């Protein structure tokens, strides 16, 4: 018998990973021969089985160091933890959030964490001799951007020179972006990053680095319009939130690394497929201070960054990393053609997507080559009367290659198609069109491409296709790929939302111009995005607009009032004696009362008015058009009376009342914040005066 239990390299110390074998059968047979039927044999056998079970059942402690505080940004790891994916892989994972001063690579290299989440600057760590290995790229596009106030003097990047700018550590793509836009970094007045969005909102700095999935939410919530500069617009496109470990970890515990990576990516797939569930989980278990609205906003913004429906989560391209390295080379931070061998994790047990891409490219090249050979042989046949057998073999090879290419295109779930750019009619449509829209290829070949969109879009589509064709003919070397979104009709009368990627090419046989494209069904993705967008603007309990949506509508109402010269009223409503209902009867009954109260308030206003919930038992009513203060007071009194009537909830007769504050534009304030503040103060005045009252704010 041999048992080898190697000590772990993790933070917990002690035996953490089973790395040997136990030949139980041979050992037990030897014992039986020496001590047949004895108590000693039975005791030793039981001990062996106990040791084996304890080894197999042990969970390996693993520590993951995040690069920021808890949020949907790390949703996949929480999902892997809570759905049991780590546990099923034999891992006991501890997730540690970061602070602005946390150096994530240092935490992993020092052994205080086994895995980390880092930026693409891991390339610089590799160049500095730090043996980091990237396991997966979670964000296909980095979320790092530069934000400015829309009302500031900074309208373009060159305007930043001489201005106060906060750029956080590790924002290398921003520096490369500034360099490409010819903005001297040393010409900026760089201020230490406070990670406080109020510094930008209140004008203490002119610009700050931020995440496109985080800070815009907070600016929108306080009503500050902003301008966003993204490095991608300047051709700087880095990976983001890369999962990494060390060469030592990979060398000593390769199976553990593989198990952690696979469980994490499984968690990420679940999180992106179930954003509402995972957002609620994060708020409950990891980030109780974050609102569900914010977490859902973050989830929605991450879809375009992670691209889960286009790219396998975690996928990395060595060519893309080489492009990132070249950007660092342009900045003088890496040598040209930097060799990052060993920097990228390669799982030999799984298909290599990059290899597949190369293989497909080689296959297509082979088709072109075989076609050329066939044409050459055909010419030789005619001129020199070469043997018919050799020509037949070349034709058969070409036919076999064409069959492979057709099998590839026709087995895709997406629809591949070709159309004549002059007649705008299809010349080829792949069989997957029947799965996507119910038509057979023969029903569509020869039909006009504009019939694939809604009638109101057909003229615009024809003009767009012809305009792009003219641009290609004017400069055929500058081939462009276009991405468009269309609602396309199906044979059964329904519609599907599709994403169409297309380009132009000259048919080498006919010399005619072709429009070639691939159409993908994005109906489910669009529905998910719309659902997330709805939840980001509405209260999940009552279905009422939340603070963000009410504030946006208030802003629109004020803009209209300034143009047309009418008044606006804002009512701030707080339920009296609601807390005793929750304390006595429980939150379930309290929630039912809140839903009924919300409905009563809806019944008291016009369709053009907005009833919103700010949280707890606080509601707001926006009256976007009032002529005199009495109009607002009548609505407020109507609501107060409706809420004063008893509520029948779950067989209980419950009584609450309301304190209502009213603020008017322009008398009580001319901005969103001043009206909200005035209505809030008037509401507290109603409470101080005995509750169950309406109070009009007066400065």
Automatic annotation (TrEMBL):
<feature type="domain" description="PAC">
    <location>
        <begin position="479"/>
        <end position="534"/>
    </location>
</feature>
<keyword id="KW-0472">Membrane</keyword>
<dbReference type="Pfam" id="PF00990">
    <property type="entry name" value="GGDEF"/>
</dbReference>
<dbReference type="InterPro" id="IPR000160">
    <property type="entry name" value="GGDEF_dom"/>
</dbReference>
<dbReference type="InterPro" id="IPR029787">
    <property type="entry name" value="Nucleotide_cyclase"/>
</dbReference>
<feature type="transmembrane region" description="Helical">
    <location>
        <begin position="12"/>
        <end position="32"/>
    </location>
</feature>
<feature type="transmembrane region" description="Helical">
    <location>
        <begin position="358"/>
        <end position="377"/>
    </location>
</feature>
<feature type="domain" description="GGDEF">
    <location>
        <begin position="566"/>
        <end position="699"/>
    </location>
</feature>
<protein>
    <submittedName>
        <fullName>ABC transporter substrate-binding protein</fullName>
    </submittedName>
</protein>
<dbReference type="InterPro" id="IPR000014">
    <property type="entry name" value="PAS"/>
</dbReference>
<feature type="transmembrane region" description="Helical">
    <location>
        <begin position="39"/>
        <end position="58"/>
    </location>
</feature>
<feature type="domain" description="PAS">
    <location>
        <begin position="401"/>
        <end position="467"/>
    </location>
</feature>
<dbReference type="InterPro" id="IPR052163">
    <property type="entry name" value="DGC-Regulatory_Protein"/>
</dbReference>
<dbReference type="Pfam" id="PF00989">
    <property type="entry name" value="PAS"/>
</dbReference>
<keyword id="KW-0812">Transmembrane</keyword>
<dbReference type="Pfam" id="PF09084">
    <property type="entry name" value="NMT1"/>
</dbReference>
<dbReference type="GO" id="GO:0003824">
    <property type="term" value="F:catalytic activity"/>
</dbReference>
<dbReference type="InterPro" id="IPR015168">
    <property type="entry name" value="SsuA/THI5"/>
</dbReference>
<keyword id="KW-1133">Transmembrane helix</keyword>
<dbReference type="InterPro" id="IPR013767">
    <property type="entry name" value="PAS_fold"/>
</dbReference>
<dbReference type="InterPro" id="IPR043128">
    <property type="entry name" value="Rev_trsase/Diguanyl_cyclase"/>
</dbReference>
<dbReference type="InterPro" id="IPR035965">
    <property type="entry name" value="PAS-like_dom_sf"/>
</dbReference>
<dbReference type="GO" id="GO:0006355">
    <property type="term" value="P:regulation of DNA-templated transcription"/>
</dbReference>
<dbReference type="InterPro" id="IPR000700">
    <property type="entry name" value="PAS-assoc_C"/>
</dbReference>
């Amino acid at each position: 018998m041999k048992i080898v239990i190697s000590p772990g390299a993790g933070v917990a110390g002690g035996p953490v990973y089973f790395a040997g074998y136990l030949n139980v059968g041979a050992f037990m047979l030897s014992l039986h021969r020496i001590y047949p039927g004895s108590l000693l044999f039975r005791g030793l056998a039981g001990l062996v089985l106990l040791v084996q079970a304890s080894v197999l059942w042990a969970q390996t402690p693993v520590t993951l160091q995040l690069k920021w505080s808890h949020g949907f940004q790390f949703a996949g790891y929480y999902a892997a933890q809570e759905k049991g994916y780590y546990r099923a892989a034999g891992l006991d994972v501890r997730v540690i959030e970061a602070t602005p001063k946390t150096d994530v690579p240092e935490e992993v290299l020092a052994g205080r964490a086994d895995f980390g989440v880092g930026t693409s600057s891991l390339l610089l760590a590799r160049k500095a001799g730090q043996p980091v290995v990237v396991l997966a790229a979670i964000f296909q596009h980095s979320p790092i951007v530069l934000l400015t106030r829309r009302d500031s003097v900074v309208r373009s990047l060159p305007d930043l020179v001489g201005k106060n700018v906060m750029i956080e550590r590790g924002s290398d793509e921003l520096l490369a972006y500034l360099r490409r836009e010819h903005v001297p970094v040393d010409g900026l007045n760089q201020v230490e990053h406070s990670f406080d969005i109020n510094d930008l909102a209140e004008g203490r700095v002119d610009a700050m680095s931020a995440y496109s999935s985080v800070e815009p939410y907070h600016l929108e919530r306080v009503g500050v319009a902003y301008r966003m500069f993204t490095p991608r617009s300047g051709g700087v496109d880095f990976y983001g939130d890369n999962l990494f470990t060390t060469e030592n970890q990979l060398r000593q515990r390769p199976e553990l690394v593989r198990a952690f990576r696979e469980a994490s990516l499984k968690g990420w797939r679940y999180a992106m497929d179930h954003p509402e569930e995972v957002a609620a989980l994060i708020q409950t278990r990891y980030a109780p201070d974050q609102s569900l609205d914010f977490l859902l906003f973050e989830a929605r913004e991450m879809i375009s960054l992670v691209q889960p429906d286009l790219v396998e989560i975690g996928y990395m391209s060595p060519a893309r990393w080489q492009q990132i390295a070249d950007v660092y080379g342009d900045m003088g931070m890496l040598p040209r053609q930097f060799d990052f061998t060993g920097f990228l994790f390669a799982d030999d047990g799984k298909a290599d997507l990059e290899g597949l891409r190369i293989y497909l490219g080689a296959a297509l090249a082979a088709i072109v080559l075989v076609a050329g050979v066939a044409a050459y042989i055909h010419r030789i046949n005619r001129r020199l009367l070469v043997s018919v057998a050799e020509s037949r073999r070349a034709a058969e090879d070409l036919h076999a290659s064409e069959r492979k290419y057709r099998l590839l295109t026709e087995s895709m779930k997406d629809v591949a198609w070709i159309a004549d750019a002059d007649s705008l009619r299809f010349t080829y449509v792949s069989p997957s069109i029947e799965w996507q829209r119910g038509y057979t290829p023969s029903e569509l070949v020869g039909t006009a491409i504009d019939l694939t969109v809604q009638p109101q879009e057909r003229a615009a589509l024809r003009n767009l296709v012809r305009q792009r064709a003219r641009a290609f003919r004017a400069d055929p070397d500058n081939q462009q790929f276009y991405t468009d979104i269309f609602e396309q009709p199906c044979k059964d009368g329904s519609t599907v939302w599709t994403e169409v990627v297309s380009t132009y090419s000259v048919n080498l046989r006919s010399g005619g111009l072709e429009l070639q494209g691939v159409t993908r069904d994005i109906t489910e993705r669009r529905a998910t995005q719309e659902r997330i967008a709805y939840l980001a603007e509405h209260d999940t309990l009552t279905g009422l607009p939340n603070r963000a949506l009410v504030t946006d509508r208030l802003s629109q109402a004020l803009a209209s009032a300034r143009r047309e010269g009418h008044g606006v009223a804002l009512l701030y409503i707080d339920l009296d004696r609601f807390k005793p209902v929750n304390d006595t009867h429980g939150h379930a009954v309290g929630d039912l009362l809140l839903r009924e109260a919300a409905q009563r308030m809806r019944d008291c206003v016009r369709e053009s008015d907005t009833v919103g919930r700010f949280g707890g038992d606080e509601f707001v009513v926006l009256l976007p058009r009032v002529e005199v203060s009495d109009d607002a007071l009548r609505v407020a009194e109507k609501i107060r009376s409706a809420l004063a009537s008893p509520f029948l909830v779950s067989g209980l007769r419950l009584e609450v009342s309301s304190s209502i504050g009213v603020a008017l534009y322009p008398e009580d304030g001319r901005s969103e914040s001043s009206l909200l503040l005035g209505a809030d103060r008037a509401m507290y005045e109603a409470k101080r005066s005995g509750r169950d009252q309406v109070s009009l704010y007066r400065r």
